[in-house]
Every structure is written in C-alpha cells, then in structure tokens.
Specification:
- The chain is an alpha+beta fold.
- The chain has two domains: 38 residues; 150 residues, Rieske Iron-sulfur Protein, CATH 2.102.10.10.
- It is 26% helix and 18% strand.
- It contains four helices and nine strands, in the order H-H-E-E-E-H-H-E-E-E-E-E-E.
- The strands form three sheets. A three-stranded antiparallel sheet has the order 1-9-8, with no helix packed on it.
- A hairpin with a 4-residue loop joins strand 8 and strand 9.
- The longest helix has 33 residues.
- The chain is globular.
- It starts with a helix and ends in a 7-residue tail after the last strand.
C-alpha cells in the first residue's frame, strides 16, 4: 500500500472519529438545555386550579384571587346590575363587543351576564386590561375618585387608570377605547354555592 493511501485512510478515520465524538458531546450538552424548558414544580403549581370561598361576599362587593400569576376578579352583582346587563339597550349600544364574539370566555359564559345562568349574579374574570395589561379599577357607582369622567349615567363597571379603557359589569369594553376586547373569562365552576374552582372547565359540572 502506498504512503498516500495510508495517509488518506488515516485522514478519513480521524474525521469520522471527530464527528462521532462531536455528536455525542452535543448530545450531552443538549440534554440539560432541553430539560431547562420543562416547567418547574413551582410553575406547575401556578397553573393548577385554585379555590375561592365567596361565602362572605355580599352584593356589590368584589374580591381578588390569584391564578397563574394574574388577578382574578370575583364580583357579586345585584339584581339591578343584572337587570341593566340583560335589558338596557342604550348601554349595549356603547359596547364594542356586546355579544362577546371577539373575546375570550367559556361557551357557558357567552351570554349577556358572561356567567353561569344558575349563578348569574357572580362573575369571574381576569383583572387584566386587554390593552396593555394594567389592572382596571372596580367603580360600582359615582361615589368613587375614578368616577368623575365616567358620566352621570354611570351604572357601574371598571375603569383602567393607565389609558382610560372602560368596561361594564360583565367586563365588556366600550367602543373607541384603547382596549380592543372584553376582559377574559377563564374556565371555572361552582363546587357549591359558596366555593368556586378557578382554572378547571365547568362545562360538565
């Protein structure tokens, strides 16, 4: 065998060996990188359903709980609130998406109150403005520092102090606001009349 043939053979062996070692090394490097994308126990816990006790919540009051790192507004509306939401056509004319066709909510909450028919006075929604993520303020009536610019016909709702978006008591945004959509409603269901499980689909509950 000639010297050139021997050198070519060695060269091919070294190239092949280097490629194999490099591939194996890349594999060992890739494993911890891929594992770093797996959710941590803390992240999994943050996405788990959470319970909210509303046994002490009175009409007109709202509480805030946290789910997936976001505030969740639970509002106990009055009979008058529901009447306005279901029958005030003049108010509906002010809304950008009155039927919530462009907004996010479970199918069982796609109605004028955006809640369960059986528990229509209680609404459960993300307290995050759909414009840039600020937290809208609950303004139940005109006796509120934020109510000055809302008009004398204000019937309750939410006002975002960051850029002025206005929502009604079903979380539906008014026309010509910075916010493009209604406040999102996440999956939830009532475990009892006083306990809500947030983050779990209630379509079969």
């Amino acid at each position: 065998m000639s010297t050139d043939a021997v050198n070519n053979s060695k060269r091919r062996f070294l190239v092949a060996s280097t490629t194999v070692v490099g591939t194996i090394g890349a594999g060992f490097v890739a494993v911890p990188f891929i594992k770093s994308w797996e959710p941590s126990a803390k992240a999994l816990a943050a996405g788990a359903p959470v319970q909210a006790d509303i046994s002490k919540l009175e009409e007109g009051q709202m509480i805030v709980v946290e789910w997936r790192g976001k505030p969740v507004y639970i509002l106990y509306r009055t009979d008058e609130n529901i009447k306005v939401l279901e029958s005030d056509q003049a108010m509906l004319d002010y809304l950008a998406d009155p039927n919530s066709d462009m907004s996010r909510q479970p199918e069982y909450c796609k109605n004028s109150t955006r809640s369960y028919d059986k528990h229509k006075k209680v609404i459960v929604m993300e307290g995050v403005c759909t414009h840039l993520g600020c937290a809208p303020k609950y303004v139940p009536d005109l006796n509120n520092p934020f109510a000055g610019s809302l008009g004398e016909d204000w019937k309750g709702g939410y006002f975002c102090p960051c850029h002025g978006s206005i929502y009604d008591l079903a979380g539906r945004v008014r026309k010509s606001m910075p916010a493009p959509k209604n406040l999102p409603i996440m999956p939830y269901f009532f475990k009892s009349d006083s306990v809500i499980l947030i983050g779990q689909d209630g379509s079969k509950a």
